[in-house]
Fold this protein.
Amino acid sequence: MATQATAQRSTSFLQIVITLQTLTIFLQAVSAGLLLTSSYGETLHSVGARVMYGASMLYVLAAVLAWKPGGGSPRPVWHASGFLVLASVQVVLGIAHIPSVHLPLGVLMFGLSVLALARR
């Protein structure tokens, strides 16, 4: 019974983390618009990138915690790890100022995050 309660809490934590990740990616799109139109947009986008990357790392942790207690499918861990790889590529592209790939990848990441959220 305790294991089931632990698994339920881990699954709830996973849902919260995916929601947080989706929200941070959406806010990155907003700050990208501000980057083009205001003096403080660059600062917001830079801080937001760090928060989004942290949310991606937290997603991996939450996926592992949801998987381990119940011994279920490791698929969420693979999804979260893949997302962390995409987030890493996104950060590198942003630092390198390659918007032709950075922007479409951001849109893809938002779509994948919404899909992960809908699956939960």
Q: What stands out?
A: Helices lie at 2-37, 41-67, 75-95, 99-119. The chain has four helices and no strands. The CA atoms of residues 37 and 69 lie 47 Å apart.
